[in-house]
Amino acid sequence: MLMSRNRVERSIKRIACEISEAHTAGARLILFGIEDRGFAVARTLTDHLVFFDEQAEAVQLPREHSDEVFKKLKVSKNEQFIAFIVDDVIFSGKTMFSALTAVERNLHPSEMHTVALVDRGHRKFPVKAEFYGMELPTKLNEYVSLKMKEDQITEVLLTK
User: Fold this and answer.
1) N or C: which end of the chain has fewer CB within 10 A?
2) pLDDT in tens, 92-104
């Protein structure tokens, strides 16, 4: 086990503090969680961020970034907001790169940042996790998986 439920919670609280220190209050924060697991991280992170910025909100971003997701989001053309692309694990960077591209193409945020609970390394795309809970260089035959129960993160495991 890489991270217990308590360690996950502490890591996400720390990320929330780092984000709040890096960004002044007033700008709307929108956290785009990739798929179910990234959304679970984004939602938990948002729960902690509302103590610093009550406008923070989490949005689920499916792997196939349909324009419908962006149409449902209430963002006016002139509104300044900061987008955070959130995933459970960043590996090659392909998924994160795709999400960054989709958010920029559809919403034009004033800033964009990346967040991952675990950074495995092995990038194939020019994407860096700016905010992360754990940096864990892995072998290519190892896998990091986030386990959930009832939409709550229970643990993070390393398997071969």
Assistant:
1) C
2) 999 999 999 999 9
